[in-house]
Amino acid sequence: MNSRVAMHHLISDLIDHVETVVVGKRHVVKLISVALLAGGHVLIEDIPGVGKTVLVHAIAKSVGADFKRIQFTPDLLPSDITGLSIYNQKKGQFEFRPGPLMGNIILADEINRTSPKTQSALLEGMAEGHVTVDGVTRDLPELFFVMATQNPVDYEGTYALPEAQLDRFLIKLSMGYPDRKDELSLLNRVQDQDPLRRLTPILSVTDILKLRHQVSSVYVSEEMKNYIMDLIEATRAHPLITLGVSPRGTIALFQAVQAYAFIEQRDYAIPDDVKAVAPYVLGHRLLLNQEALYDHQNGKELIGDLIETIKVPVMKRETVK
């Protein structure tokens, strides 16, 4: 087995491993894996009790990395997550005590229950790869992956995330209820022991970084790049969209397409990769007008509609390497 094939199997094993705990949500686990491989972050929005936190725990326990959980509350301060400098009387100097944000895999639980000021501290880390504490900039680890959960914005005690922070999440998704068969399977699995406790790491930080390197080499033809741009430009001309996808969103889609192709065990991208990830990468980056909001439209659905109108490129043999 060559090294590339072995790396393909690593990510497949991760998805299978998480599915032993999170039943019937393979598509969701695959999308989170896309973000992990593309170097992005994930926002999971759904009602309480559908398994958001369990899913994030399962991903974290499957990777042998430094895992931190931050429970966001209204009284949480920026220093509570970034860390702070404490004066050491014995040494006569200030010492930095890192906060939970200084880890590899971060569970930001109920992110929209804290104040915008604390949300901004998280945003700096996600956007810049470092945090600033007492005027000193401190780098975050090379593997820094945020999986945030939030309840719907109409729930009591929530703060809507600003557009700038939403744009920093590569993927936004929801889980939904499991179907009857999967929920019965879940009952059988928890009857004897919590399956989350049985999970052990099957990937290391080094493995993830190697996978990311492989993903960045996935070939995207000129036809595919133009297909992506056709979709992006369609969001900017749509009558129900006030602000379309920014260039940052274009890059995010490109990287997600590469990651999805890799998970599908290909070293080249095809139109189906765009169709699979675009609603989750682009939907939360749109600003809809009042007419769309009045009709209860959402970004994810609009992206799905636009995909149906974009001409799919014919992949020539020489464009697939």
Question: In brief, what are we looking at here?
Answer:
The protein is of the alpha/beta class and 321 residues long.
In the sheet with the most strands, the strands line up as 3-6-9-1-10
Kindly state the number of beta strands. Answer: 13
Q: List the uncertain runs.
A: none
Coarse structural class:
alpha/beta
Give the proportion of residues in helices. 40-55%
Ends apart, CA distance between termini:
20 Å
Largest sheet: 5 strands, parallel
CATH topology of the largest domain: Rossmann fold
Number of domains: 2
Q: Report the sheet-strand fraction.
A: 15-25%
Number of DSSP helical runs: 13
Determine and state the CATH class of the largest domain: Alpha Beta
- Which shape, going by the Cα principal axes? globular
| Rg value | 20 Å
- The CATH architecture of the largest domain can be given as 3-Layer(aba) Sandwich
SSE series: HHEHEEHEEEHEEEHEHEHHEHHEHH
Task: Spell out the CATH superfamily of the largest domain.
Answer: P-loop containing nucleotide triphosphate hydrolases
* Rounded average pLDDT: 86
Organism: Sporolactobacillus kofuensis
Protein name: AAA family ATPase
Domain ChlI/MoxR AAA lid: 234-301
Domain ATPase AAA-3: 41-171
